[in-house]
């Protein structure tokens, strides 16, 4: 009885036959793939893989998973930042107007990121092979840049207006955690998060200059 290996042609025969076929029929379409071996990965892919490996040390542990999944859920649709803005809006009529303006600016940021910028890049999200430990909303939009990261930075820049130094540190610290959570839950690549942070800081600076939450009185 022959083994499966005995049924295979000698090494090199298939390659020689394929080369002969290509020489005789150069226009013949042949099956191919576009997968790259690890040593052919680009710099961005290597960076993403490296950061993903760092998060593997924490994934699957409690309470880390539960806390990080909660953070990423709170970042959906800018919910965390809207709640913070409206909690300040309860202090006075002026703060309420600022909260309303803030909500409108976050909505505009979402349209820019999800409706314009992501459509320019159309990057695929990470492929998940294992079941996630907690419930998670799976977005339909493409991957680059991370909307959670962008929104966190826009919120930080805007809410920093009339905030104490300690509050500013908390705003950007929590924003950074929300952004990092997107890598942990495997919804974004690390480079998506960095891109979102950069875009968010830029959009936040423009919004604060053009549409400040507390306009100066003339």
Quick structural gist:
With 218 residues, the protein is mainly alpha-helical.
Overview of this structure, please?
- This protein starts with 12 loop residues before the first helix and ends in an 8-residue tail after the last helix.
- Helices cover 60% and strands 0% of the residues.
- The protein is built from eight helices and no strands.
- The protein is mainly α and 218 residues long.
- It has helices at 13-24, 43-56, 64-74, 79-89, 93-121, 147-159, 165-184, 190-210.
- It has one domain (41-210): Vanadium-containing Chloroperoxidase, domain 1.
- The radius of gyration is 25 Å and the shape is elongated.
- Helix 4 runs antiparallel to helix 5, helix 6 runs parallel beside helix 8 and helix 7 runs antiparallel to helix 8.
Q: Could you outline the blueprint of secondary structure elements for this entry?
A:
Blueprint (H helix, E strand, L loop, with lengths): L12 H12 L18 H14 L7 H11 L4 H11 L3 H29 L25 H13 L5 H20 L5 H21 L8
